[in-house]
Model the fold of this input.
Amino acid sequence: MATIAVGAGPGAVAFSPDGTKAYVPSGGFGSPSGVFVIDTANLTTIGSPISTGGLQRAVAVSPDGSTIYVTSGFMSWGLFPIDAATNIVGTPVTLGATPYDIAITSDGTTAYTTASGLDQVDVTNLNTMTVTTSINVGDEPFGVSLTPDGSKLYVANASGNTVSIIDTSTNTVIGSPVAVGSGPYGLAVSPDGGTVLVANSSSNAVSVIQTSDDTVIRNIPVGTQPLRIAFAPSGEFAYVTNALSDDVSVIRMSDLTEVTRISVGDGPIGIAVSPNGEFAYVTNQSSNTVSIIRLLLQPSPENFPTAPVQQFGVPAGSTVSDCAALAPDHVSEPGIASLREVGWSLSWAEWVDNGAGGPICSRQPYFTGSAWAVR
Done:
């Protein structure tokens, strides 16, 4: 696992759409401070940090990658646009007190920022850099996340122990807040839009909301003081930073189970997964670093981390259910011994029976990053 030193108290991270850069705002007092730009190919910071003044809390990148948005301030707060090509800071728009998170619509025209000190969400027109409205939500809102179609915004209310839901077509709250665990901080909507995961910082669990009816269907125990959540682009896994146990929980979405924890730096808070799903960047607020985790690579048309195909001939009339019993010993070599009976398919090949042709059993082993599997 690689580690990159950044500024004081980093609490957030965001990738450029092409994954070549990662942006990390420093959230505490100290020097150097500003927004650090990381070259993801070389794992180094580029140039000097970009100063916006005050404490940088949250960061987001426009869908076209042209602009970086940072919430920054101290006595007063603003949303600062930064030109991604030149690193020049533009004129900010004034926000409500203590903005902790940003969500940008897919068309890049609107930003939603939480104003935790005023119990509201500010809505900013990014074309004119003006706040068009402020929406009252629950007590001390922190995290926000949009559904993929942009129709709903979910807001974690840390002191209210609830999640508010906003209809973005009218910018009004829908129904009653959803009760979750204690101290909900960050949250994330799954790539398919069917699920919202909520990090409950005081109850050490992740609440699972199904978006079809906005009800909690499960609470998943994780590490100590979970704060932020990021999904893999495939939606198969979600990653949760645990600030007091100094690790990241990995949640398998197929059965909503924590499958492992990955140790990182001191006080992990922010997390983002690279657009290609290969890495997770984690900001460690207490050690002023970013940990870079190589994730489990799931097979896809673009990425098959495979071993040689396993094939062998079988007698005429064999069925796929016979493959495991007829398989030679080499198919149970160390690493896949427990997988002897799965993944087989039955086909035909010319090389069987001295070139006469016949049925074969075959399967493809692949490596996920931590274990072997077959398909």
Notes: Confidence is low (pLDDT under 50) at residues 297-305. DSSP finds one helix and 34 strands in the chain. The first helix runs from residue 323 to 326.
